């Protein structure tokens, strides 16, 4: 191991020890950004960048499991991404399908979040078969956000809630009275799960782009310049250390 590699390992171990004194996030969100730019700067194809990013997701999840983080939401495909060229989308669908299968085979529980209907029917069927065969006692649950947009999620939640209330025979005023923060929360894609404590975005962009709009009202954010395929375990540890040092006020 060269000197740089040795120093990296020492720093990584030090960060890990520092985190032992803190409570880590129970729900971690990650916006995996920068695959295409990473590939372009490396002189590689866009597909190569997406495959490198997919491999990094599996590595990232192994780090989270080692640290005892029980829930991770990964944004793999946004509603805006659905407007990309057909040839890029075809490659993306294949990569996403392979990645979800690999996540399940790694022993993690997968929940599809967003518009899974954006994926080809054959791929959805294969994912369902993989999910049915997956163990039920996974230490890590992974929400894979596909065809996801924060505004669309809120609209879907409200529409589903209104349909449920209408099905109970309520009129317009009765429905309006039953719409609340709690009732909408119960119809989100992440229903039954805690809101994200920390959201990480790579590639230097400092915006959420609609990621978990409703759920992130009290979330902490951590942005880094590194493109997603180059994200390292030490980057995750630094994000967690920064999170643990903050005083969360929850609007107070």
TrEMBL record:
GO terms for cellular component: plasma membrane. One of its GO terms (molecular function) is ditrans,polycis-polyprenyl diphosphate synthase [(2E,6E)-farnesyl diphosphate specific] activity. Mg(2+) binds at residues 33, 220. Its cofactor is Mg(2+). The keyword Transferase applies. Belongs to the UPP synthase family. Z-FPP synthase subfamily. Catalyzes the condensation of isopentenyl diphosphate (IPP) with allylic pyrophosphates generating different type of terpenoids. This is Isoprenyl transferase. The gene is uppS.
């Amino acid at each position: 191991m060269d000197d740089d590699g040795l120093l990296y390992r020492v720093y990584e171990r030090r960060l890990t020890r520092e985190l032992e004194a803190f409570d880590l996030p129970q729900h971690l969100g990650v916006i995996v950004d920068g695959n295409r730019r990473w590939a372009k700067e490396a002189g590689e194809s866009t597909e190569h960048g997406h495959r490198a990013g997919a491999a990094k997701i599996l590595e990232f999840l192994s780090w989270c499991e080692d640290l005892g983080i029980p829930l991770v939401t990964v944004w793999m495909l946004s509603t805006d991404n659905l407007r990309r060229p057909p040839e890029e989308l075809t490659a993306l669908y294949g990569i996403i399908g392979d990645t979800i299968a690999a996540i399940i085979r790694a022993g993690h529980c997968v929940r599809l979040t967003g518009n899974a209907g954006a994926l080809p029917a054959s791929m959805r069927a294969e994912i369902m078969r993989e999910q049915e065969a997956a163990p039920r006692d996974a230490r890590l649950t992974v929400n894979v956000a596909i065809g996801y947009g924060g505004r669309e999620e809120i609209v879907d939640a409200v529409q589903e809630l209104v349909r449920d209330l209408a099905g109970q025979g309520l009129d317009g005023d009765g429905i309006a009275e039953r719409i609340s923060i709690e009732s909408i929360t119960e119809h989100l894609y992440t229903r039954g799960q805690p809101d994200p404590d920390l959201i990480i975005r790579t590639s230097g962009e400092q915006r959420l782009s609609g990621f978990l709009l409703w759920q992130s009202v009290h979330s902490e954010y951590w942005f880094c310049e590194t493109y997603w395929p180059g994200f390292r375990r030490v980057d995750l540890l630094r994000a967690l250390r920064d999170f643990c040092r903050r005083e969360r006020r929850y609007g107070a």
